[in-house]
Structure formats: structure tokens, C-alpha cells
Amino acid sequence: MVDPGFGIGATASRRTVVGFTGAPALTQKSPAQSTWKAPRLALVNLDPKGQVLVEQKALELQLPVVSNQEGQDFDLLLVWTGERWQLQSRSGSPGPVSAEYVQGPQGYRRRAGGGRGQAVARAVGLKPGRPSPAVLDLTGGLGRDAFLLASLGCRMTVLERDPVVHLLLQDGFRRASEQPELDWIPERVDLHLAEAKAWLAEALSPVPDVVYLDPMHPPRGKSALVKKEMQLLQRLVGSDADSAELLQRALRLPIPRVVVKLPLRATPLAQGVDTELRGKTTRFDLYFP
Ligand SMILES: C[S@@+](CC[C@H](N)C(=O)[O-])C[C@H]1O[C@@H](n2cnc3c(N)ncnc32)[C@H](O)[C@@H]1O
């Protein structure tokens, strides 16, 4: 079995300021997160050969390892199946969620050649015949945008502050890069467990052409509107109530293009949007500082 601790930015960078989700009050959250309650989280191992790996991760994440049955006492379970890490609720619904780029919609989109026409590709300024930009993705999440942009040639630096989401991301890129046609992933994707505000406070190297933000938003009235996987992710990390502050920091940098992905009708995170690209449910606000 390939080492599931696969090394895309496998260690937290020296500039990382993060805590561990699930371990009490270590993940940095802003006061506006007060209605969000950190979920009780535990690891479950379904792989007879996975004990060492799972115990090592449990130690890193400061989370307990429990049996499937004991998992009923927890809100969310991080499960090692022997093939992948996945996040699931104790009821199993919605979910399970993992970072998946080979099968499912991501894989289909790539195989079908979908890409440059996608709003996110236009938002970061991808143009035929021009070199693809280097993008700093401040809010990695499940890496769907990062993967799509990397598959179109962008060099991606991807930050994620939540250690559990980071583990899912790392695991998704590891599995994907085992596919011969995706062997470019380690060259193009540089993933870090990092708080983006701390990252931006240091000299950026390489200097990106584009800074990209896709923060988590508070659930709107009809939760059915929130995609299933986003429901679980939201349960895990809450909403990113500090995203306006993060954008302000990004706008102060000498980066020519800053892109924010938002729900279609959301209020802009900062004034001075230079261009907006509208899709059916999302909008990209572009700033050219
Ligand atoms: C909506 S998700 C991003 C989804 C992603 N664009 C995708 O395509 O899957 C937002 C993620 O950003 C992370 N995040 C938010 N603020 C952050 C910050 N200041 N530093 C690092 N990560 C952050 C959250 O933990 C969450 O996982």
C-alpha cells in the first residue's frame, strides 16, 4: 500500500498557525462563530492492517480511536477504510465525504475535457495560448477548485487550516496522483496545513499571479440547498466568519488579481469589486488591486 501520509506539503509549514479540529478550542475561530459548536469527532479504523496508521493520525489530531459502535457517541467520524480517509456523520447521512478527483463529478469533468470554459478558470484569468497563472488558494476545502485549476496547468499553492480537512485533501491528492494520467499532481499542487492570515503575513515565495478565496458561508434558510458534502464540512469547520478580514489582507498585497467565490446573491466581502462573473448559483468577485 502506498503511504497514506503522502507528502504533498505533508507537514505543517514553519509559518503554520493552526490547531486541531475536534481537540477543544484549538482551531482559530472568530467570535461570530459563536452559534457553531465544535463537533465531537473520533477516528474509526475499518482496515485490519491500518492500526498503526490510524493510531498515528489519532495522535497527530489529538482525537480518540473508537469502534464503529462507540462512534454513536460522536457527531462526526473520520474513517480509514484501507483505501481512503472519509468523513461521515454517525448516522451515515449525509455522506460519507472524501476528496475525490478520479471518480465522480471531478473525474467526469476532467475526462470530458470540461475546464477552460468553467467560471473558476475564467475568474483566475486562464486564457488559451497564455501561460497558466500561479494561484494561491487560501481556502483549500475539498480541493475541487484547486484540482480543476491544476488540471488546466495552474501551479497551485493550497492552504487549509483545519487539520481534518487537510488530511482529506492530502488523501485525495495522494490517491489521484497514483493514476498515471494524473502524475503531474505533485509538481503542480503544493498543499499546506496553514492559517492563511499567518501565511499572508510573510513574504510569499513564489509570488502568485492570483489569490483565490472560497470561504464557507453560513447555511441559508433551506439547508437542502447546501450540497451534502458541504453540509458535513460546515458541521466540521463552521462558517468562515473571518473571511472579510482575510480578503482585506490579500488586497493589501502586490498581487494583481484577487478572486472571491460567493453564493450568487451574497454581499461582496469587500467594496471595490472590479468585475463579477455570475453563474447559476455562484458568483466570482474579481479585484485588481
Ligand atoms: C468552502 S471551503 C472551500 C472549498 C474549495 N474551494 C473546494 O473547491 O473544495 C472553505 C475552506 O477554507 C478553509 N479556510 C477558511 N478560512 C481559512 C483560513 N483563513 N486559512 C486557511 N483555511 C481556511 C476552511 O477550513 C474550509 O475548509
Overall description:
It is a single chain. Helix 4 links the parallel strand 5 (134-137) and strand 6 (155-160). This protein starts with 40 loop residues before the first strand and ends with a strand. With 289 residues, the protein is an alpha/beta fold. The protein has a domain at 104-287: Rossmann fold. Residues 1-31 have low confidence and may be disordered. The strands form 2 sheets. A 7-stranded mixed β-sheet has the order 7-6-5-8-9-11-10, sandwiched between helices. The protein has helices spanning 51-61, 104-111, 119-123, 144-151, 163-177, 185-188, 196-200, 228-237, 243-251, and strands at residues 41-45, 65-66, 76-80, 85-89, 134-137, 155-160, 189-193, 210-213, 257-263, 275-278, 282-287. Helix content is 26%, strand content 18%. The structure holds S-adenosylmethionine. Residues 138-139, 141-145, 159-162, 165, 195-197, 214-216, 237, 240, 246 line the site of S-adenosylmethionine (SAM).
Short description:
The protein has nine helices and eleven strands. A hairpin with a 3-residue loop joins strand 10 and strand 11.
What brief labels describe this structure?
9 helices, 7-stranded mixed β-sheet, 289 residues, Rossmann fold, binds S-adenosylmethionine, disordered N terminus, globular, 4-stranded mixed β-sheet, alpha/beta
Low-confidence stretches: 1-31
Output the CATH topology of the domain at 104-287.
Rossmann fold
Q: What's the total count of β strands?
A: 11
- In CATH, the architecture of the domain at 104-287 is 3-Layer(aba) Sandwich
What is the first-to-last residue Cα distance?
A: 47 Å
Q: Structural class, from secondary structure content?
A: alpha/beta
Element-by-element helix/strand order: EHEEEHHEHEHHEHEHHEEE
Q: Overall 3D geometry?
A: globular
Number of helices: 9
CATH class of the domain at 104-287: Alpha Beta
Q: Into which percentage range does the β-strand content fall?
A: 15-25%
What's the CATH H-level homologous superfamily of the domain at 104-287? Vaccinia Virus protein VP39
* Neighbour order of strands in the largest sheet: 7-6-5-8-9-11-10
Ligands (ions, cofactors included): S-adenosylmethionine
CA radius of gyration: 18 Å
Helix fraction? 25-40%
Average predicted local confidence, pLDDT: 85
